[in-house]
């Protein structure tokens, strides 16, 4: 997946940053890093190898790492599936 982020620099310039990663969680961490370092994100979208585009709700990202939360969620649903 390719993550495209449009953000504002400290000088007020509008810039675009793109990064490729196989893991969705990595993409979300990159986006949260921009927010954490004080770069106002104007838009963010994920593009798959098939060309499918998903717009991400930038207001949902507060700069906090989500890896730990996603890991807990994954453990919980695996536990639920295992007990079924």
From TrEMBL:
Superkingdom classification of source: Bacteria
Name used for this protein in its record: Uncharacterized protein
């Amino acid at each position: 997946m390719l993550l495209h982020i449009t953000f504002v620099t400290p000088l007020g310039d509008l810039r675009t940053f793109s990064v490729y990663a196989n893991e969705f969680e990595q993409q979300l961490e990159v986006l949260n890093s921009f927010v954490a370092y004080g770069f106002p994100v104007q838009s963010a979208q994920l593009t798959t190898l098939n060309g499918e585009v998903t717009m991400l709700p930038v207001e949902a990202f507060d700069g906090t790492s989500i890896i730990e939360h996603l890991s807990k969620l994954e453990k919980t649903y695996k536990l639920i599936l295992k007990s079924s």
